[in-house]
Structures are given as structure tokens and as C-alpha cells.
Design brief:
heterodimer; A: mainly beta; seven-stranded mixed sheet; B: mainly beta; four-stranded antiparallel sheet
Chain lengths: 109, 114
């Protein structure tokens, strides 16, 4: 069983709120990723990190930001949520293969 | 640049019949390839991985995949489908170089009928 955790699993918030999606792993992996996935659709890479203090934007433009202050922790923040941010957000960490969290399903109303 | 093409967006089979999910990749380097499965409202689970040790890779739940360099393919198969196999399947290639980004295919939705 992979040791990567995302909280919350489900979140419904109002427009304009600031939110942080949490992702933690206990495997000591340097590489971590955030993907955005709409229902029934493919995954799009929005952020990645290759270690502490290293973050890069992914292939899909996103208004979110990330930080990597500790190896095990890779939170994603939306400063002002909008309905267009409604989606599922998946966090992953990688040694050789990637391990995924259960995801956070975000709804902005 | 590397890319992945999953040739079928939907596949429907009867329980007990074989499953074939097709994946083609493009790569300038010797790739690392993976298949992941996603059940509804769940995260992704690794089914199997190709690491260049053997071209026929066996995974969990009776799935296997064969790496064919000449055809740039990595198709996923299972001899006999179960109802519990109904899910979304993603073929993934690892980016070359030191960055190792994972590049996902668009996914194939597998339906299994009684």
C-alpha cells in the first residue's frame, strides 16, 4: 500500500476563497507531482517538484501555486477559487514508478 | 518529445472473454512504460511496469503487457475479464533525461458485461 495522502477528499467552497490542498508522502521520494483531472478525462500535469525548494509549472496552465519546504509535503494553494477550478486534483510521488493519492474533488460554487 | 496514444477511448467486453487495451508511444530514448488503473472515485493504482528487463511484463490481477520496440507498442492484455476490471486504464511513458516527467495517455474506459 502506497503511503501518500491527500486531504481533504472532498471540498465545496465559495468563489473567492483561498484554499490549500494537502499532500504528504512517507516514502522519502524527491519527485512529486500535481495533476488535474476532470471526470472521465485524462490527467494534466500542473506542477512538479524534484526536491526541497524546487518547483516547476507543468504542461497545463494553472492559477494555483505550490511549495516544497519539506521532502514529504507538497501543498497546492488557490488564492482565489473560481468555478473554473472545479475538478479533481491528484498528487503523486515517484521513485521509479509513481504512487498516487486518493485525490481531492474540489467544487467551487 | 515523448508521447503516448491510447488507440481506443472505450472498450466493451463480456465477462470471461479476453481484454486488449492498445497503447503506442513515441520516444527518442529507451522508455520506461507503465499501465495504471483508476476505479471510480479512486486514485490511480499501478498495474505493471516495463523496465527493459523483459519484454513481457506481468502485473497484478492477471494483467500483462508486451513491449514491442519495432511497433512502439505496449498493449495491455488479460485472458479473461472479470466484472471488477471495469475501470479507466492509463498508459504512461516516462520522460527522458533527468526530469522524468510522466506522460499520460488519454485513457481507455473498459466496460465488462455479464
Amino acid at each position: 500500500e502506497a503511503d501518500i495522502y491527500q486531504t481533504p477528499r472532498y471540498l465545496v467552497i465559495g468563489t473567492g476563497k483561498k484554499i490549500t490542498l494537502e499532500c504528504s508522502q512517507t516514502m522519502g521520494h524527491d519527485k512529486m507531482y500535481w495533476y488535474q483531472q476532470d471526470p472521465g478525462m485524462e490527467l494534466h500535469l500542473i506542477h512538479y517538484s524534484y526536491g526541497v525548494n524546487s518547483t516547476e509549472k507543468g504542461d497545463l496552465s494553472s492559477e494555483s501555486t505550490v511549495s516544497r519546504i519539506r521532502t514529504e509535503h507538497f501543498p497546492l494553494t488557490l488564492e482565489s477559487a473560481r468555478p473554473s477550478h472545479t475538478s479533481q486534483y491528484l498528487c503523486a510521488s515517484r521513485g521509479f514508478e509513481a504512487f498516487f493519492g486518493q485525490g481531492t474533488r474540489l467544487t467551487v460554487v | 518529445a515523448q508521447s503516448v496514444t491510447q488507440l481506443d477511448s472505450h472498450v466493451s467486453v463480456s465477462e470471461g472473454t479476453p481484454v486488449l487495451l492498445r497503447c503506442n508511444y513515441s520516444s527518442s530514448y529507451s522508455p520506461s512504460l507503465f499501465w495504471y488503473v483508476q476505479h471510480p472515485n479512486k486514485g490511480l493504482q499501478l498495474l505493471l511496469k516495463y523496465t527493459s528487463a523483459a519484454t513481457l511484463v506481468k502485473g497484478i490481477n492477471g494483467f500483462e503487457a508486451e513491449f514491442k520496440k519495432s511497433e512502439t507498442s505496449f498493449h495491455l492484455t488479460k485472458p479473461s475479464a472479470h466484472m471488477s476490471d471495469a475501470a479507466e486504464y492509463f498508459c504512461v511513458v516516462s520522460d527522458s533525461g533527468g526530469y522524468n516527467k510522466l506522460i499520460f495517455g488519454a485513457g481507455t474506459r473498459l466496460a465488462v458485461h455479464p
